[in-house]
Structure formats: structure tokens, C-alpha cells
Amino acid sequence: MPSIRDESTVEVKPLTAVRQHFCREYCRNGHNGAQAYKTAYPGTKSGYNKHAARLMVIDGIKQEISRIEAKTVEKMEHNRTIAIRLLNDNLVAVQVKADAGEVGAISARTAVIRELNAISNLHSATVHTPDAQVPVLEPAEADARAAAAREYKLRLSKGIA
Fold it and tell me: How many Cα atoms occupy the beta-carbon half-sphere of 127 within 13 Å?
């Protein structure tokens, strides 16, 4: 009578250097098994898809690919966190100059905010403010903003901004 194998107690043999190379290539090239096999086993002349499919059912290969992908996600999240921190620092520095009325700082602030929104997935493609939430300006405030915009455009045309 066949015995039932408990998957949690199965020992996975360490992968050979070539199989580790296959796993790295598989993760690096966007999960193209045939291309990964071709790179890891350069002596093979054909049958890349078939050979890659055979490797992909091996538990050690699956675990190594999962480990590499988890490590990649961790690195990406760490880099994203660093980028957000640096952009927030830049935003604070630029905000002081923008509050002082420097036109270049105002456009720099806008660029930093757009970059933060893109990194945080808050860009206009995913977030839309309903019309009910858009504040209505008083006529004097609208006139002041329009005058500031005209002044800004004038400075840009003269190359001052």
C-alpha cells in the first residue's frame, strides 16, 4: 500500500549552482522559463520550454524562486520608503521658498508632490476629487489667483522664473 507523504517533513536537497542560476534568471527576466533555461544551460540546443517546465515542478526550484521574489519585494519596499522620506524632506525645503513667493520653488513643489503621489499610487488616474469637494473661491480670491498666474506666465516668457 502506498504511503502518504507529509509535505512539511520532506527535505529539499540544496540546489546546484546551475539550478540557482536558472532561478535567478527566471526571476530577473520576468518569469520566462525558456529564456532562463537557455541562459543557465548554454550547451542545450533546443527544447528550452520542455526543460524549463520540468525544472519548475521541483520543490527546491519553487522555494528558491519564492525566496528570490520575497527578497526583491523587500528591497523594493525599502527603496520606496527611502524615496518617500527623501521627497518629503525636499518638499519641506521647497515649501519654505514657495511660501516666500519664489516661482521656481512653486513649480519644484508641484513636481515633488506629483512624484510623491506617483510613488504612493495617488496620481490622478486613481484619485479623483468629486466636484462637491472642490472649494469655491470668493471673487476677490479668484481675481488674486488669476493675477498671480498672469504674473507667473509673464515671468516665464521673459525667462525670469
Answer: 8
**Cell digits for 136?**
469655491
pLDDT at 1 over 50: no
List the grid coordinates of 68.
528570490
Query: Taking residues 8-30, what's their average pLDDT?
Result: 85
Q: How confident is the model at residue 64 (pLDDT cuts 50, 70, 90)?
A: very high
The per-residue DSSP string of 126-137 comes to T----GGGSPPP
Whether the model pTM is above 0.70? no
64-66-68 Cα angle (round to 5): 70
* DSSP letter assigned to residue 46: S
Query: Quick one: which of 13, 53, 15 has its CA closest to 36?
Result: 53
Kindly state the average pLDDT of the residues 119-123.
68
Cell of 131: 466636484
Q: What is the grid cell recorded at 47?
A: 527544447
Q: Whole-angstrom Cα distance, residue 116 to residue 2? A: 58
Q: Which residue has the higher pLDDT, 160 or 65?
A: 65
Query: At 30, which helix (H) or strand (E)?
Result: none
Residue 58, SS3? coil
Amino acid at position 91, single letter: L
Cα 24 from Cα 40, distance rounded (Å): 9
